């Protein structure tokens, strides 16, 4: 798959990035190639180190409720700068396949639209194995080094993805909750996490996606990771809310990027 080259912006930042424009690049001069793609019904935004042709360690990145893959181009480029293939995915009903009535629901917390939210989260999780199959088939992805990351609703998807596809070696769930994908078979689902390297980052004062379920999950997972405690980490950002301050978000992305690169690159 031939990708157009996108050069990093100057160290002091860039305007809001779009897929045909500049990736935000504060610390690196590495070129990043970016393009849109569509596998079956799933729209993608793919970023990778320019000039690479062999299968790469890969991260599938999922956005929040009401957002889309384009919003996270800076994060995708950040991962590509670390040598990863970063694949932004439009969740069901979002982005290039947005539901007609999504906007009227997206301004409300998930608990106020539970049926729609569950449909989107679980439906997107169900698409993931076939998406991975296609990335591997095309020679883009190293099947032994695949990870997942997501923000808010995307974090909920990341938790479900771990139990849906055992090929996932690493995961970063940011401001998400496992309650939407693990509620029906909690014991069975928990058994499917190890040895995936899981980082969960929550916000202390998050009222949109409360951190309690992630805390409980990590408590349950602790004994199952006793042989490899380095592969399990929960960070709670003190004083933070769901809508983080820029410096809090920057720190969160730094932690997630380093975690994923550590276990995949």
UniProtKB/TrEMBL annotation:
Every Dienelactone hydrolase domain range: 46-221
GO function terms (MF aspect): carboxylic ester hydrolase activity
Pfam families, per the entry: DLH
Keywords: Hydrolase
Membrane spanning stretches: none
Matching PANTHER family: DIENELACTONE HYDROLASE DOMAIN-CONTAINING PROTEIN-RELATED (PTHR22946), POLYKETIDE TRANSFERASE AF380 (PTHR22946:SF9)
Protein's name according to its UniProt entry: Dienelactone hydrolase family protein
Originating organism: Candidatus Accumulibacter proximus
